[in-house]
Amino acid sequence: MANRGGRHARTEDSDNTINYVQCDGLAVMKMVKHCHEESSNMDLAQGALLGLVVDKCLEITNCFPFPKSGDETMDEEMYQLTVMRRLRRVNVDHLHVGWYQSSDVGNSLSLALLESQYHYQTSIEESVVVVYDTQKSARGFLCLKAYRLTPQAIQMYKDGDFTPEAFRTLKVGYESLFAEIPIVIKNSPLTNIMMSELFELLPEDKGHNFLDLGTASVLENHMRSLIERVDELYQEAVRYNKYQQVVFKQDSDKNRALAKLAAENAVRTSKGEPTVAEEEVIKQFRPMPVPARLTATITSGQINTHSQHIAQFCSQSLAKLFITESLQNAKEAKEIK
Amino acid sequence: MSLSNYSLQSKVLLHPLVMFQIVDAYERRPMDNTQVMGTLLGTVAGNTGRIDITSCYSVVHRQHDDDSSHIDLDLRYDSDMCQLTQFSYPQEKVLGWFSTGSHVSEAAVELHEFYARRCQNGQPLHLLMDTSLRGKLMNPRLFCAVQTGVPGGTKGLMFTLLPMEIYFGSAETAALRHMNKQCLSQAKDAGPTVPQFKQVVESTKELQLRLDLILSYINDVLNYKKLPDNSVSRALHDALSAIPPVESERFRHMFNNNVRDLLMSMTLSSLVKNQLELSEQLSNMSDA
């Protein structure tokens, strides 16, 4: 993790718009509510974030959900504008600073996310996407992540050039597509007062379900999606390898034809006939289209986050197991006595 | 209008989000306003009568300095907001209104009449929160108006207090616990979201603290320093007997299996990661 953090710090040096995201408790609670309500009917929840930019910090102070996608009749942009206008009248910050999305483990960094975030970041430079993990949060781990596209990724998407060469020249890798921005939650003093009052009412035994030991199903889910991603990446690799083989074959064919032509031309000149230009032969071999590397890169990114999640998950599960072990040992020691 | 007091029988649950929204609205109130008010939204479960107050929005209004029994609501704003929320949460209906202050204001009668028309059952709920902290606590309270008076004679409205509970969903609880921890540790006034491992470690520490507390209590009782309390010992007994007896053999088996699974997953996932790094390095190598 430290290694990864360092890498992010470096990417942020070149992208100096925002250093961290500060999120209000209100916005967090609203996101939690929306995402869980949508996830109960297996939908993806999406919404807009409102806030303001102070120095290098993006403050998210409010948010509102996008309408359900099933309704085709309404104009989404119009809806957003109306909501923002209404909220403005009750003095809510009306700068649109990004959007949020619910997701299940690690699958969030998809092509669709990249596309939408590209549009956001090109229209509002500071905007972020906040990904909220419903499954993990329901198990007691609050999981909010903020991402931005790196300048390289934006440049790449702007050029629309996803060839391996473009990736190499822009130095875009799976880790430098999205930059994770640290997110902090901060409440106003009055909200803190309210919360300590609320906390008194919170039952002691609630919210500790992250200590559950039955973790096999979770791990299974993690592994399954990791395997799916690896499969996808493998398909991409096969496609790329096939392309390389074809290019190689074409090259050797071309060389053979050229050699043949040179021999023929030598015969022709000795006979005093006009020679055939090499271009004629080269024209016969059309260059193959280079397969885009974007999907592969994104899948790599997903695999990377998956393996991070698994590592995190395993370490905490191990911790829990060792706690139970010591409990069991203590009990056995007592029984022997 | 017959007013059988329906809501006294039904359970009312207040979602914490509403409190967040009210406090935020109060902090963002216009300069010359001393209070905020707005519409409460939520769901009523048909069969159990359970009422969930899930959301709210504040409504633009104007207070009169000289006459506190009147309040000018921006009715268009209210109906607009109501419509907009229907797009994202079609199941939420108007349940009543909230306002801030230490007591039910004189304008409540007027508001009650207005919201009675907006509510489906004609009985709006009134949530009051003391955000000015004059009463030391915010103390969210729920009221419902009951008609009083002699039939045929003068009638009045009486706002009676309704029992209310706060709803804690598991995700909300996680978020609240996290935020509370942050607001208690004032070292840095804001901290990032903690990794899972740390969370487990922290709760283990908490558990240890509690065990120490119980131990000291038990020792005190054993040494006749404290009077034994039967309810406490019963609770302790319940807690102890809640631990399932697991045979040593079976526990070892389970433990080893789990540890092996986890370690294998960790190894595999880091292997995959290394493969990725390798392939990226390879593809970024210049052709020369």
Automatic annotation (TrEMBL), chain A:
<dbReference type="InterPro" id="IPR045810">
    <property type="entry name" value="eIF3h_C"/>
</dbReference>
<dbReference type="GO" id="GO:0005852">
    <property type="term" value="C:eukaryotic translation initiation factor 3 complex"/>
</dbReference>
<dbReference type="InterPro" id="IPR027524">
    <property type="entry name" value="eIF3h"/>
</dbReference>
<dbReference type="InterPro" id="IPR037518">
    <property type="entry name" value="MPN"/>
</dbReference>
<comment type="subunit">
    <text>Component of the eukaryotic translation initiation factor 3 (eIF-3) complex. The eIF-3 complex interacts with pix. Interacts with mxt.</text>
</comment>
<dbReference type="GO" id="GO:0033290">
    <property type="term" value="C:eukaryotic 48S preinitiation complex"/>
</dbReference>
<dbReference type="Pfam" id="PF19445">
    <property type="entry name" value="eIF3h_C"/>
</dbReference>
<dbReference type="GO" id="GO:0001732">
    <property type="term" value="P:formation of cytoplasmic translation initiation complex"/>
</dbReference>
<dbReference type="GO" id="GO:0003743">
    <property type="term" value="F:translation initiation factor activity"/>
</dbReference>
<comment type="function">
    <text>Component of the eukaryotic translation initiation factor 3 (eIF-3) complex, which is involved in protein synthesis of a specialized repertoire of mRNAs and, together with other initiation factors, stimulates binding of mRNA and methionyl-tRNAi to the 40S ribosome. The eIF-3 complex specifically targets and initiates translation of a subset of mRNAs involved in cell proliferation.</text>
</comment>
<keyword id="KW-0648">Protein biosynthesis</keyword>
<dbReference type="InterPro" id="IPR000555">
    <property type="entry name" value="JAMM/MPN+_dom"/>
</dbReference>
<feature type="domain" description="MPN">
    <location>
        <begin position="21"/>
        <end position="153"/>
    </location>
</feature>
<keyword id="KW-0396">Initiation factor</keyword>
<keyword id="KW-0963">Cytoplasm</keyword>
<dbReference type="Pfam" id="PF01398">
    <property type="entry name" value="JAB"/>
</dbReference>
<dbReference type="GO" id="GO:0008237">
    <property type="term" value="F:metallopeptidase activity"/>
</dbReference>
<protein>
    <recommendedName>
        <fullName>Eukaryotic translation initiation factor 3 subunit H</fullName>
    </recommendedName>
</protein>
<comment type="similarity">
    <text>Belongs to the eIF-3 subunit H family.</text>
</comment>
<dbReference type="GO" id="GO:0016282">
    <property type="term" value="C:eukaryotic 43S preinitiation complex"/>
</dbReference>
<dbReference type="InterPro" id="IPR050242">
    <property type="entry name" value="JAMM_MPN+_peptidase_M67A"/>
</dbReference>
TrEMBL record, chain B:
<dbReference type="GO" id="GO:0008237">
    <property type="term" value="F:metallopeptidase activity"/>
</dbReference>
<dbReference type="Pfam" id="PF01398">
    <property type="entry name" value="JAB"/>
</dbReference>
<dbReference type="GO" id="GO:0031369">
    <property type="term" value="F:translation initiation factor binding"/>
</dbReference>
<dbReference type="InterPro" id="IPR037518">
    <property type="entry name" value="MPN"/>
</dbReference>
<feature type="domain" description="MPN">
    <location>
        <begin position="12"/>
        <end position="149"/>
    </location>
</feature>
<dbReference type="GO" id="GO:0003743">
    <property type="term" value="F:translation initiation factor activity"/>
</dbReference>
<dbReference type="InterPro" id="IPR000555">
    <property type="entry name" value="JAMM/MPN+_dom"/>
</dbReference>
<keyword id="KW-0648">Protein biosynthesis</keyword>
<dbReference type="GO" id="GO:0071541">
    <property type="term" value="C:eukaryotic translation initiation factor 3 complex, eIF3m"/>
</dbReference>
<dbReference type="InterPro" id="IPR024969">
    <property type="entry name" value="EIF3F/CSN6-like_C"/>
</dbReference>
<protein>
    <submittedName>
        <fullName>Blast:Eukaryotic translation initiation factor 3 subunit F-2</fullName>
    </submittedName>
</protein>
<keyword id="KW-0396">Initiation factor</keyword>
<dbReference type="InterPro" id="IPR027531">
    <property type="entry name" value="eIF3f"/>
</dbReference>
<dbReference type="Pfam" id="PF13012">
    <property type="entry name" value="MitMem_reg"/>
</dbReference>
<keyword id="KW-0963">Cytoplasm</keyword>
